[in-house]
Amino acid sequence: QVQLVESGGGLVQAGGSLRLSCVASGNIFSITTMGWYRQALGKHRELVAIMNVGGAAEYGDFVQGRFTISRDLAKKAVYLEMNKLKPEDTAVYFCWRYEADWGQGIQVTVSA
Asked: Which of 54, 37, 9 is nearest to 94 (CA)?
C-alpha cells in the first residue's frame, strides 16, 4: 500500500503564493508519474499538474503559467508552486500517483 502525505495548504490572499508538497511512502516498487488534482465545492475533480519521471509536465488549462510542478525522485516527492492565486483556485488539492494512489487532500483557500 502506498501513502501520499500532502502539506503546505492554507489560507492566502488573492495574488499570493503557496507551495504544496507531497511525499510518497509504503510499498513503492517503481517511480512513476505523480502530480496534483483539485476539487472545488460542488465541482468535479480536475487536473492541476502532473509530471513524469523524465520531467515532462502537463498542466490544466486554467493554470496559465501561474503554477510550477517539480519533483525530487530520490525523496519520492512532488511539489506545486502556486503563484498569483485567485479566489477561484480555492479547492481541496489532492496528490496523485499513477495509476490510482491518492492523498487525503489539503485545503487551499484564496480570499478576495
From this structure: 37
Other CB atoms closer than 10 Å to residue 40's CB: what's the count? 14
Please name which of 109, 96, 94 lies closest in space to residue 38, comparing C-alpha atoms: 94
Per-residue pLDDT tens digits of the chain, which is 112 residues long: 899 999 999 999 999 999 999 999 998 878 899 999 999 999 999 999 999 999 999 999 999 999 999 999 999 999 999 999 999 999 999 999 998 999 999 999 999 9
Give residue 99's pLDDT: 87
Listed residue (89, 49, 54) closest to 69, CA to CA: 49
Three-state secondary structure readout of the chain: CEEEEEECCEEEECCCCEEEEEEEEECCCCCCCEEEEEECCCCCCEEEEEECCCCCEEECCCCCCCEEEEEECCCCEEEEEECCCCHHHCEEEEEEECCCEECCCEEEEEEC
